[in-house]
Write a structure and sequence with these properties.
With about 120 residues, this protein is α+β, with helices and mostly antiparallel strands. It has one domain. The protein has three helices and seven strands.
């Protein structure tokens, strides 16, 4: 997205960054969706080469130390999942995963139904 902010579509990407920051700020924090089960809302989607990460909660780490992670549903589409668990956003982005800028929030149940 940084490169996009310097190109001909700079206004679009800058607006998307502001929009995504608002979504992340408003997301539930760790354990807030525990009781929701499959009705928890997937707020963010990352993807890379057939892998998908669907994020329902963010970890609150105000001191900047420790693991930066989120909770969600990971699906490799290659027999390694799917599974619910903690996801290192730094790690998947470092590996090349991209944030889906056109994601429409939906429930975990809807994600699993689409995959079936």
């Amino acid at each position: 997205m940084g490169d996009g902010c310097r190109g001909p579509e700079a206004a679009y990407f800058k607006d998307k960054i502001v929009e995504m920051a608002g979504i992340i700020d408003a997301m539930p924090v760790s354990y807030e969706t525990d009781e929701q089960g499959m009705e928890a809302v997937v707020e963010l989607h990352y993807f890379l080469n057939g892998w998908d990460w669907y994020i329902t909660e963010k970890d609150v780490n105000k001191d900047g130390k420790g693991q930066i992670q989120a909770f969600g549903y990971a699906d490799s589409g290659e027999g390694f999942g799917p599974e619910l668990g903690y996801i290192s956003i730094k790690e998947i982005v470092r590996c090349g995963a991209e944030l889906d800028l056109h994601w429409t929030p939906c429930t975990l149940r809807q994600i699993k139904e689409k995959a079936a």
